[in-house]
Amino acid sequence: MDSAGEQSDEPAATSWSRDEEAALVRKLDLRLMPFAMLMFFVSYLDRGNISNARTANGFGATATPDMTGDDFQFTVSIFYVTYIIFEVPSNMVLKYFTPRVWFARIMFTWGIASACQAACQNKTGIIICRLLVGIAEAGLLPGLLFWIGFWYRKYEIATRTALIHGMLAFASAWAGLIATGIGQMNGAGGLPTWRWIFILESIPSFLLSAATLIWLPNFPHTSQNWLTPREFQIAIARLPPSAPSHLQKHFDLEIFRETIKDPMNLLYPVFMAIGVIPQLALNYFMPTVLTGMGYKGAMSNLMSAPPNLYAFIIEIANAYHSDYTQERLFHIVIPATVGMVGYVLLPISGINGWSQGMRYFLLFVANSGIASAPGWYAWRQNMTVGSTAVAFVMGWTNSVVNIAGAVSPFLFPSADAPVFYRTGGFVG
């Protein structure tokens, strides 16, 4: 592990003890990470609630009477079109508008677009709203990963990335429970369950947007009001020159040109996308897969919680160990391999009539693959130097990875139901 205050790339005029730095990092975590985690939790709740709405009362009858066959897969996939297009532009302007303002804007606009889904009367309305949610939400995850680079050292990044990205699984776990609870409101105010899901799950977006605009810290150099003078000094001095800096231009055209020429910008996100396709697919379709296993209605939403909570825990544990050992490759390969085994065995178990319990266990195995994601993001960020380069690289990487998100819904076509899902398993 690095010795606090002894790295050659730190200013010689500043030194501190391990205890001082540990106390500072704890203070940063308590102030910064709850905001980041809640933002991504709420975003994924709003992004993925269409899956819960699909299994809720009245969705097919009153929302999408013209939606047939695999139209739902298309509706899920279309979100990623605008999401992918606006990822990089969003990241490039984040530093100019400041994280506080930009994240608040993102949450407020996606809250509006998500709530509007409750008013849809046909497939076209749902598709338009999904496109708007993609525009509004684009840039949140790469923006958060860019932002934490201003605050944390190289081998603190994976753990904080996992705390943020792990909200994907955590939100998926709670989404089913929340949707089940909202299901008790079916018919209240003359509205079916699925409309209440879109309405009620949009409210936290507006509340968190306001809180972010008021309390979110932007950068270390603007944090004199909540850090002591000593903490303020250490927070700035402990970061190496390779970290994004508030002293650099909001956008440096020359660095941008050099960055886009790097062949790693093509190879790295493509390999990452291949690795995460199955995770994204199963995340959206777990309630549907569980229905095929025999868990009907609300029970399919409830039973999706344990595998997702497991994924949340193992993702954080793997990332923490990656930072602690300062190793990335094996912390990506091992969980990805375990997840791949689970995806291959899922359709085999259905084809061969394995027990319901064994098939449910395989969901845990398959969900292990998501633990590789923080390592992928952290390793790429560790390779990159400077604000313009990091902003572009994180936005671009997430854009390419989310092409997998656009493809992944089609890995679970209706023709593969109810129990086999050969395509999703064998491609994964």
From TrEMBL:
InterPro entries documented for this protein: MFS, MFS_trans_sf
Recorded GO MF terms: transmembrane transporter activity
Membrane topology: Multi-pass membrane protein
Compartments, record wording: Membrane
Pfam families: MFS_1 (PF07690)
GO cellular component terms listed in the entry, alphabetical order: membrane
Domain of life, source organism: Eukaryota
Assigned keywords, A-Z: Membrane, Transmembrane, Transmembrane helix, Transport
Residue spans crossing the bilayer: 102-120, 127-150, 162-182, 194-216, 266-286, 298-317, 329-348, 360-379, 391-412
PANTHER family reported in the protein's UniProt record: PERMEASE-RELATED, TRANSPORTER, PUTATIVE (AFU_ORTHOLOGUE AFUA_6G08340)-RELATED
Official protein name in the record: MFS general substrate transporter
Species for this entry: Gonapodya prolifera (strain JEL478) (Monoblepharis prolifera)
Taxonomy of the source species: Eukaryota, Fungi, Fungi incertae sedis, Chytridiomycota, Chytridiomycota incertae sedis
